[in-house]
Amino acid sequence: MIKKIALLFVIIMLLSFSSFNNFRKLLIEKLEDYTNYYPEKIYVQTDKPYYATGEDIWYTAYLVNGIDHKRSDKSRVIYVELINENDSIVSKKQLYTNDISVPGDFKIRKEWTPGNYMLRAYTNYMRNKDTDYFFQKQIPILNLVVNDSLNDIVVSLDKNKKPLLEKELIEKPEINFYPESGYLINGLISKVALKVKDKQNRHIIVKGTIKDSDGTTICPFETFEFGLGYVTMIPEANKSYYASVIINNQEIKYPLPKALPQGYHLSIVNNGHQIILKATANVDLGLKNSFLVAHQRGKLFFEKLETENKNTYSIKLNTNNLQNGVVNFTLFDNNGKPVCERLVYINNPANNININVSKNKTVYKTRDKVSIQIDLVDKNGNQALGNLSMSVSDLDAVGQNSKSENIKTYLLLNSDLRGNIENPGYFFEKENDIKRHYLLDLVMLTHGWRRFTWNTILYNTAAEKAHFKPETGIYISGRTIALKGTKQSFSAATRLTFMGSDLYQDKKQSNANGAFKYGPFVFNDSIPILIEARVKDFKSDDNKKNRFVNILLDDDFNNSPKVSRNTLLRPNVNDKQKIINFIKQSQSITKIESEFEESARVLDEVIITAQRKSEREKRNTLLNERTSYGFPSNRIDLNDYPNSESLTIFDLLAMIPGVLAYNGSISIRNGGTPRIFLDGIPVEIGDISYMNSGQIEFIDVLKGADAFFFSNSGNGVIAIYSRTGAGIRNINVKRKPGIIDFKALGFYTAREFYAPDHLNGFDEAIKQDIRTTLHWEPKIKLTRDTSKSEVSFFTSDTRSNYAIKIEGITDTGIPVYHLTTLEVD
């Protein structure tokens, strides 16, 4: 009997060990999948926190691997949108980058309604998660046509107040409690974080006491900046607890979460260079078969299985090999259920990178040349490499607060924690500041890890499959549908043609669902494209039914995700005087621009002595601008034939010397069938047979040597140009089945920031220069060849102090931020 019991015990132990090994293998495998198929993050630096109607928003978008913050190897396409208060996208840019950053800009139209707009940035791959994972930043836009008082405009933006003191309260505040690692457990000592705020989400500084259900005082508490504080307590069985706060001579009670009779607890002390962790349990098995894991942004760096039946253990972990940012500790019980979670912020001095800024002067005059040298240096004084962007703005009009969000606070805090963290720059203003270190740990206690939940990552495998793929270029996609009958999707032959100086064609067979996809392509601006489809192939056009195909294009660019403002970075706009100064300066700039444009219209009389071109020469010059081959052998201009709308394309061709056109065929005398082009795109006779003179602007015929510009043109060329306007292809004529044309929107190329040259500029010499953004440098790249970079610009006519704000990221994935000033006297 004893042997049977022993054998049964061994079997249970083996099964338990096997079960744990399976769970451990699953957890590590899922974390590895998470890091291999890493999420992407985007951060966008703008030149200033708020704008006026009619201004430009200058920005640089940084796209990184969400694990190590290095350049992402997945996406190359970034979408940046400007969204108004009604959640309508008023402007959208499609940017391409093969680097870590790319510049862009928005033009704020004067007729837009002022208000709190949102700048949103994401990749297609990021759409696999909720839109809360997108970069989203509030952009206040002010109206310069002021009907109400300036103060009313400022009040509408004045959302961030200073923390309220207890004596200033006129209503009951809200207190939230956050037990360390999740729960209060009877008999286990626990730290409980508190966060106090009012209905306006303002932080409250209060004092109070924790009492039990008998009214006995357990301990006092006090909150500080951000309404944060904490207490340490040991809950007892059969007792409840509440926080007591006296407001307006009245006691207000706030119940604490009810303690569990049994459970687990994680206690962590972060000493900077070292983490001291204590795990405790009061369940029957104690900590036996519990599994502790620690990861940083999904990358596992510590694991521990407890094999003994003990109620507590302690661990010391050195943090020298960790990157800066949030670390997650999770304790799983013997059933693989996560029972405790604790976040810790790592600030490793070895990771610190400094931005050095050297100016050629200490004080500048108006219209003075500024030269700034910028480099990156690590803690040992070695040069670091990376990408930066820089804005220089007027401090009297534009508030640049070091407590605001920046690339460092976003990548290391906001993007990984649940909820918003207001004034996150506060925690990084001073190195080795004990108070800020203390408050940052309370932030860890009051915010959870938001990148994934364990149940989702471990068991919901289907949810992890990426429906939206990373984009490395522009895709042209759509479906082929039967023109008649059931009008269902079916597989058809398709052909794509790019119009342009370099002809490009490609053919694909759409799949059984009629879907086809061309790309990826990389091009800027817009390119006219022709897509054709045939039931069988392009060799069977003698059969009219071969064209019985409808082509439906996908519109991915305008298919934007839903708008949500749950994770919105809000700028500091609580300085009324600065905003008033900004509006007044913007009004002055608008007035100067208007007066300058008006004066430019008044020109001195200019006497031109040149031979006047004839109307015919002007007309031919205009038409030649639409062609790529210069002069034709023969041309017919439909402007010379008014009231000729009844003439068909064949009637028009027959009017051209040397061209034979009848019975649906075309030939050039002494030759075979010529090549036919419509607005530069090769087409077939059937594609133009529907056209008449009302749809055509002119027709060129090229013969002999003139035709050699085109390949395979031994029989000559007939080039037809529709009435679309010179240099523009936007054909709206009725097409035959099986053919569509459109303009494909290319990647946006950022405009260059206008920087006046006060040494060599002509207009600048006679025009007053007032700017709230003195300079914007969207991309400063520090490489091994250019470890230092020099940026030059001119001061304006405004005597003021200017904020130089530099943000960026190193090639090793360390975000950097620097704020300094420049004085103009």
pLDDT below 50 for ≥5 consecutive residues: which ranges? 6-15, 147-160, 601-612, 725-734
Strand content: 35-45%
CATH first level of the domain at 623-725: Mainly Beta
CATH topology name of the domain at 623-725, in short, is: Ferric Hydroxamate Uptake Protein, Chain A, domain 1
Mean pLDDT: 86
Biggest sheet: strands, sense, closure? Answer: 5 strands, mixed
What gyration radius follows from the Cα positions, in whole Å? 35 Å
Give the termini distance in whole angstroms: 98 Å
What structural class should be given to the helix and strand makeup?
A: mainly beta
Number of strands: 47
Proper CATH architecture of the domain at 623-725 = Beta Complex
How would the global form be characterised?
A: globular
Strand adjacency order, main sheet: 2-8-7-4-5
Your description of this structure?
The N and C termini lie far apart (98 Å). A hairpin with a 4-residue loop joins strand 27 (369-378) and strand 28 (383-384). The protein has a five-stranded mixed sheet, with no helix packed on it. A five-stranded mixed sheet has the order 26-47-46-29-44. It has a domain at 623-725: TonB-dependent receptor, plug domain (Ferric Hydroxamate Uptake Protein, Chain A, domain 1). It has ten helices and 47 strands. It has 825 residues and is mainly beta.
Describe what is shown at a glance:
With 825 residues, the chain is mainly β. The chain contains 10 helices and 47 strands.
Task: Give descriptors for this structure.
825 residues, 5-stranded mixed sheet, Ferric Hydroxamate Uptake Protein, Chain A, domain 1, 10 helices, mainly beta, single chain, 47 strands, 14% helix, globular
